[in-house]
Design goal:
single chain; about 120 residues; mainly alpha; 2 strands; about 75% helix
C-alpha cells in the first residue's frame, strides 16, 4: 500500500494527540486542562484521534470520505494546537508539539486543495 503525505500528517496528529492524552491522564506537566467550557478534553482528544484513524483506514487521499475525515481531523487538531497557543502561558514548554501539529494540519489542507485542483483539471 502506498502511503501519502496526508497519511504521514494524520499519523503525526494521532501520535501528538495520544501523547497529550497520556500526559493528561498521568498529570505530567505540561498537560492540557481536564476540561474547557465546551467539553472535557479527554473525550475530545479521543474523538480527534478516532477521526484521524478513520481517515487513514478509509484512504485519506483515495476516497471522498477519507478526505473529509482528514480535513475534520486537521481542524480538530488545531483546536488543541492552533495559532491561539502562541498566546498560551505554557507555549515555551509546548512549542515543538504546536509547530509539528500545525505543519501536519497545513500538509493535510494543502494536499486536499492540490488533489481537488488536480481532479478538476483532469475531469
Amino acid at each position: 500500500m502506498t502511503r501519502t503525505p496526508t497519511d504521514a500528517a494524520l499519523t503525526a496528529l494521532v501520535l501528538l494527540q495520544s501523547v497529550m492524552l497520556a500526559a493528561l491522564f498521568a498529570k505530567v506537566p505540561p498537560h492540557p486542562p481536564e476540561a474547557i467550557p465546551l467539553f472535557g478534553i479527554a473525550p475530545f482528544l479521543a474523538m480527534a484521534i478516532s477521526t484521524a484513524a478513520a481517515s487513514l483506514s478509509m484512504g485519506s487521499e483515495k476516497s471522498p470520505s477519507g478526505t473529509v475525515l482528514a480535513v475534520a481531523a486537521a481542524f480538530m487538531a488545531l483546536l488543541s494546537f492552533g495559532p491561539q497557543k502562541y498566546m498560551d502561558a505554557q507555549f515555551p514548554l509546548i512549542w515543538p508539539a504546536v509547530i509539528a501539529a500545525q505543519i501536519a494540519a497545513v500538509t493535510i489542507f494543502v494536499r486536499v486543495f492540490q488533489n481537488r485542483r488536480d481532479h478538476r483539471l483532469t475531469a
